[in-house]
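Quick question: what would this complex look like in 3D?
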Amino acid sequence: MFFFIISLTTMSSRFGYLMINTLFFSVIYAWLLYQKGLLTDPMAVSYLIQIPFIIVIAMFYGYLITTRLKDKDVRIHEAWERYEQIVQATDVLMCIVDHDGKFLFTNQKLVKFYGYQDEKSLYGLTISQLHNEDETEAEKSLNYVRSVYQNNDMVQYESYDKNHGVWFSNTLSPIRDTSTQDVFAVCIISKNITDLIAKEKKLNDTVGLLIKTRGQLIQKDKMAALGRLASGIAHEIRNPLEIIYMGVDYLENNLPNDNPHVRESIEKIFNAVSRADNIIKNILSFSRQSEYKITQRPLCPLLDNVLKLAEQMIQKNGVSVQRKYDDELLEVAGDYNMLQQVFVNLVNNAVDAMKDRKEKILTVRAYKQLATEVGYKTGYRRADFFSIGDEMIIVEISDTGRGIPAEALPKIFEPFFTTKSANEGTGLGLSIAHMIMDRLSGTIDVESRENQGTTFFIKLQPKIKVMDAKEM
Amino acid sequence: MKENIKVLIIDDEVDFCYFVKKNLMKDELFNVIIATNGQDGIELAKNEEPDIILLDLFMPDMPGEDVAAALKENTVTADIPILFVTALATNDDIVDSEENKIGNNYILPKPVRTKKLIETIMKILSKH
């Protein structure tokens, strides 16, 4: 009994309780002694007298223990505060999740960022539910959690939060059982790297711009060198060609007229010379990029003029022409001669393609259209000629000819690619057209079906494009 | 228009000059004289006073433009029309195709056939 009281008193953790308990149990002990009539027993009385001493001893022990406990308490509290400070005061979003991505712990930054009241309102939710409007991100986050469990290793990935427009760098670390080393939770730390990404993008843009400028300079250099080469070639080859022309003219005048073979031979020589000259002419226009004069001018009279230039050939081949201009007043930005060269080329090709066809219809359309789809030189990049929503002037030149075989279609804009015989084409026409369109910040495209016909789409700028200062 | 048209060719391509002379002189209309460099050409122009000068743009001793400038400076030769026959131009260069002109100069790109050359010469002379 005696020891029971002592042990009870010492077990009391608080000093106040200790005193009350000691007093309480001492009185009970005295009362028990009295009840049993043992108060007269000298042994018992001596016990009773011992009680105050015991109390004092007990009090002393109790005091020691409680102060110790109190100390520990304070230390735990301090540690907790420090930990709280780190977890809550940090700029990163932090949480601990289980295998299913369910939150076991979240810091205030995360709670606030996703607009929840407090930590408790996130319990029961999973990490994927933070991205409930972006399915791919939701799935991604969960997959990464699982991969940490599987591989028992850290994972790092970047994610984009659409709703907030924020980029995160996420680090997932496994939390392991100290004895078994099994993963029982994953700690996710997400750092906002939006500014970093923006800076990186800016850097990339600058690098891209530098590369582009370098490319332009190289191109300019190349074109200048090609220009010098081409005019050199033109001069060196055309002079002998001229002598051949003049010489054959002389022979023609002085040879007997009655021999048909002579006439035929002379004709063949002339054809060969003009073929060679054609190639030189085309190479010259390849190299004359710097001589463009881009002005804004009406489109339809230009197209009419092209058809007039080709009139003889069109009539000779029995081709009927349909003009479908949406608006006679359409204007385009371009170099008149270059545009004319492109269109004449396409009209010639169209007429050629219909030579052995029954139905021979050449359709020339001109209309306005807004760029709506991302495509070749169309989109959001700085190098694109048309941005989405930009106005484009489109010229379509369609024929009902034999069409271009599918395997040849990707190659038709390559220099010296031709399906015509050597007498009919140099294989430079379309590649020059492509180069000219590039130079005019426009595009040329083709659609073709074998045995049905071919349509070329020429997309032009409605106004002279003021070069972006950034672009220079 | 005179009965006999005197044409001066200034071109370093000797064979070209040879054939042009042969071909033009087939018609009795033309009388052709030849200079195979710029300096000779200027001298010949002064002495012979041709009706028209066919001038190459690119010659070893002096460029056609300089020859033309020298001819324009001399009162004797200043009014003689000059037709540049050159391998350096293309038909696209001729802005005014009716007049075969680049700026104030007549021009005819090589290679050209005799028929077209005669036509051009006649067209230019009809304006002078």
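Answer marked as accepted. The interface with chain A takes residues 13, 15-16, 19-20, 22-23, 26, 58, 87-88, 90-92, 109-115 of chain B (CB under 8 Å).
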